[in-house]
Amino acid sequence: MERQKGRSSKATHNRHQRRKLEEKQITVPQTAEQYFAMSKRSQDEWNTVVQVISKMGSGRVSLQEASRELGVDPRKVVRLGRTALRKRANGRYAAKTTNRLLRVLVLPTNDGLREITVRDSKQASQIGKYWAAVQKYLQTGDISALKKIRRKWITDADGKRTLLLKDTGELDRLGSAGVLCFESLYAKAA
């Protein structure tokens, strides 16, 4: 009996060590090159961490709720997204109003979808509003939401500007081809 207990304890210890090693492997990407050099699993984990923080900021949701909903350990969110969080007086974490976390998002262009890397939550939010306007247009034909978007360009992490496609003929063509679904917002690697 004692022997089995020792083996069980050793197996648990090894599992614990592997988990710690896996947690240390994912690092916070600062550039698109670092992001794309990450494994697919690490990219998925990073995207989930960013989504948790976005959900916390936009929906007044707690770290625990957002983490549970998206299936990630809240400790991982704190470890990787620390710069985008602030600790309140009660010890709980809240998302800062803006952050500089790297996000790889997708924008429609005349040539199809293009991945764009942004390091500004305001740019990411603008892309989200743009996608919502595109979806509204494609579903209802109502162009008013697209007209309300005053910004014509998105500036990526490298300082390059990408034109927001507002040509309804081109949007219709891409929509008919099945390219423009809301799930396309996040990078293909995600």
Largest sheet: 2 strands, antiparallel
- How would you write the strand order of the largest sheet? 1-2
Number of domains: 2
Number of helices: 8
Computed structural class? alpha+beta
Radius of gyration: 20 Å
Which regions are unreliable across 5 or more consecutive residues at pLDDT < 50? none
- Hey, roughly how much beta strand do the residues contain? 5-15%
- The helix content is 40-55%
Q: Which oligomeric form is depicted?
A: single chain
Order of H and E elements: HHHHHEEEEHHEEH
What number is the mean pLDDT?
86
Number of DSSP E strands: 6
Instruction: Give the distance, in angstroms, between the N- and C-terminal Cα atoms.
Output: 47 Å
Structural write-up:
By secondary structure, the chain is an alpha+beta fold. The protein is built from 8 helices and 6 strands, in the order αααααββββααββα. It has a two-stranded antiparallel sheet. The protein has a two-stranded antiparallel sheet with strand order 3-4. A hairpin with a 5-residue loop joins β1 (85-87) and β2. α3 crosses α4. The longest helix has 24 residues, at 2-25.
